[in-house]
Amino acid sequence: MTHLHSDVLSALHRIAPDFADVAAAHDRSGDFPESNARKLHEAGILGLAAPRDLGGKEADLPTALTVVQSIARDDPSSALVLTMTWLTLRGFGERAEWPEHLRRRIVADVLDNGALVNSLRVEPDLGTPARGGLPATIARRDGDQWRISGRKIFSTGSTALTWMLVWARNDDDDPKVGSFLVHRSAPGIRIEPTWDHLGMRATVSHDVIFEDVPTPLDHALDLRPLAHVRSFSPEFAAWGSTLVPAIYDAVAQSARDWFVGWANNRVPSNLGAPVSSLYRFQEGIGSVDALLLSNRVLLQAAARGELGATELPLLKYLVTENAISVVERLVALSGNPGLSRSNPLERYHRDVLCGRIHTPQADVALGGSGRAAFSAAANKPVEPIGVAVP
């Protein structure tokens, strides 16, 4: 953590316990914790990743990793919505087609008003565009504006977003695809409360329906034929591939800490001592700590830029699977208390399982790595593997 951000880290330590206090309630209600977003804004955290020339602090990836994991240990849903906003802000430096006035408007909205931003890409029929294919969402040109119609699913942060980057195609005979920037106040936007999920329930990842929604012509960003859609740079890909699995590693850390406290205080009458005194429990925590150590080393290496583009998908796969294994081992050790809704371990178990659904999923990460290995041995070029970006 650089000195520049030490004040922000101090503020984060003050507000993070409040996140833990409301996490269980929002998990049950399925509502987004608006108070958490407000506190992140007031602490100056939302704009950490924004470019410095636009008023942000342009935090580096090690700083972002520290902040995201600190938040995710208490409320992973808030951490995921924050991460999506940060990835969008980082994308400003990648996309020269962003008009300057839009870059300034969005960053000012984040810094001054606590605006949240995310890319809406997944559709009912298409699934994730990371696997290819044209979106069904269509933007039709109508005079000096576009009119957008379609449905996006798994729209993280839906009810809390101020700006949405809608992945769509235009209505040309040979369609081009790109992102269309839409403000939540535009008429024709409807949120259908479909997110009734196992875990990460407070991300409010509902369906967002666009019915002839207007947006100005210059809000269309980088329209290109599908075959020529540009990939993000390795530096930007490292942000998505590091921060998203880091959220689930933080969930596993919280599960570990809860279990240690529980095991130290659980004294069965037939044992007359805490269950933590049993070798089985000591060995179990040792195996958990080994997995968490592996995750920490991997995430820190990625944050320092030490992993290559073909290794980033494996990072996401390994960190996620290690985190899931950690929580599953703790549930098995704890027995019924680990599955009781009166204990947070049950919620950690549900939340950590959601790490698998983020791009790139296991088959893509492992299959791509295998292709890269065979291509390298044959001295042939290999296509880049998909990474966890918005």
Automatic annotation (TrEMBL):
The keyword Secreted does not apply. Coiled coil: none annotated. Residues 19-84 form the Acyl-CoA dehydrogenase/oxidase N-terminal domain. Residues 252-359 form the Acyl-CoA dehydrogenase C-terminal domain. Its EC number is 1.-.-.-. This is Acyl-CoA dehydrogenase family protein. The lineage of its organism: Bacteria, Pseudomonadati, Pseudomonadota, Alphaproteobacteria, Sphingomonadales. It is an enzyme of class 1 (oxidoreductase). The keyword Flavoprotein applies. Keywords: Flavoprotein, Oxidoreductase. Residues 123-213 form the Acyl-CoA oxidase/dehydrogenase middle domain. CDD domains: ACAD. InterPro entries: Acyl-CoA_DH_C (IPR013107), Acyl-CoA_Oxase/DH_mid-dom (IPR006091), Acyl-CoA_Oxase/DH_mid-dom_sf (IPR046373), AcylCo_DH-like_C (IPR036250), AcylCoA_DH/ox_N (IPR013786), AcylCoA_DH/ox_N_sf (IPR037069), AcylCoA_DH/oxidase_NM_dom_sf (IPR009100), Mito_Isobutyryl-CoADH (IPR052547). Pfam families: Acyl-CoA_dh_2, Acyl-CoA_dh_M, Acyl-CoA_dh_N. GO terms for molecular function: oxidoreductase activity.
